[in-house]
Design goal:
By secondary structure, the protein is of the alpha/beta class. It has two domains: 106 residues, CBS-domain, CATH 3.10.580; 223 residues, Spore Coat Polysaccharide Biosynthesis Protein SpsA, Chain A (Alpha-Beta Complex). Helix content is 23%, strand content 29%. The chain has nine helices and 19 strands.
Length: 347
Amino acid sequence: MIDIKKHTIRSSKTIAEALLQLNELGEDLTLFVVDISDLLLGTITDGDIRRGLLKNISIHDTVDKVMKVNFKSIDETISDFTVLEEFKALGIQLLPTVDSQGRIRKILNLNVLNTVLPVDVVIMAGGEGRRLRPLTEKVPKPLLAVGKKPILEHNIDRLINFGAENFWICIGYLGDQIERFFGDGANKGVNISYIKEEAPLGTIGAARNISGFRHDHILVINSDVLTNIDYKQFYMEFLSAGSDLAVATIPYNVNVPYAVLETSNGHVVSFKEKPTYTYHSNAGIYLIKKEALKNIPPGFFNATDLMEHLIKNGQKVISYPLIGYWLDIGKHEDYAKANEDIKHIKF
């Protein structure tokens, strides 16, 4: 997360002060020059200062003498995330987003940020995790550590890397611990709200109680899933298919140890020797049009119920085969595997 205060400097400050500020940054050595109203005026790097000194500009002069005024920025309301690829191609590392008045709202670090997807995120974290007891007797499953941080934090951090900013976490069992751990999300530079389930509402039922979505597309994920899914590709498939709901799926192979015969009227027409059948199983990750959430009734309701409802109504539901790592941490052996895998899998 880029600290705006550390990367901005008033136009009235001296070049000497800018050098001190750049030195304190240590990395991402760019300052954004703003006026007294916080309007973005230009940018400064140490290279700009060197070139200014070669032109006999004094370090006691103000920074506006050396700043670049042909800087790049992006409107904070931009919804075309592919624009970021153009900035990356230009070699831009830090990109400010500005409001309609030209004030910096945040600074995107294109060195680490994968993209900025226009989605809101709903994380289902209300389950009791009974199969993981006694580990979950006093700690909710989403807060069990995998490697150096909780399962849920792995998911949130990866989504932040894809530009997600607005999160709703649906909590139930020991949910107050989750709320205390993440707070309002300010320490991660995002917004986190909580939906409290007084009674279990299934894998998507609580989403009905959310208002204030900022975007037209909602990403829903189970909190106990550990994955390095490429959310950008997932979103692009969802858009290009014009679907109402996309579900990430994983292959599940069934090996039959015998020859399987295909018959017709008692006659064998073909057979396969010890075949393997591949099925696509639900990975617990969904992209959904916001309008589709209106189909969720009060009470207990699963994401699979919503999928079934949409299909019956002739709406488009697609499968996105997940390429990469995925693990549903439901049992003790899954949890042990996750803690071993995290040493080798890049998230």
